[in-house]
Design brief:
By secondary structure, the protein is mainly α. Helix content is 68%, strand content 0%. The protein has seven helices and no strands. It is globular.
């Protein structure tokens, strides 16, 4: 049995990629370059007009630490983020925590912002390995 990706599916994936781009504080050009596609192709992905190949999604996963579950379905596995006290964060707590981090990073100068985002990706990878 095969599953056909609908226009609505493409639009939802595009919206999730926009969320990822916003959190990573990267431009369309920077994400397109990371994916190895043109800005026009990237714009089509964001608008839900076309899809990119699986290897491009793997690049997002590897380079930015993006969950493939989230990219394709919008869902994350529960209980994978842990606070400093060692308790598993609820979705709401994680959302608040993420926004606080995003606001902090947003205020940094551009050079420091990119460095901080990469540090956070490495930190999250280390957390995921311990779970």
């Amino acid at each position: 049995m095969s599953y056909e990706i609908t226009k609505a599916d493409l639009q939802e994936i595009g919206e999730r990629v926009k969320q990822i781009q916003k959190l990573a504080a990267l431009t369309n050009f920077e994400i397109a370059t990371l994916l190895g596609i043109s800005e026009i192709q990237y714009d089509k992905l964001l608008r839900g007009v076309s899809m990119i190949t699986e290897d491009k999604f793997l690049r997002l996963h590897r380079e930015l630490g993006v969950s493939l579950d989230f990219l394709f379905t919008g869902y994350e596995r529960e209980g994978k983020f842990i606070s400093g006290e060692g308790k598993i964060l609820t979705d709401v707590e994680f959302y608040i925590f993420s926004n606080e981090i995003a606001n902090y990073v947003k205020q940094l100068p551009l050079e420091r912002k990119k460095q901080k985002m990469m540090e956070m990706v490495i930190m999250f990878h280390k957390i995921f390995e311990t779970i």
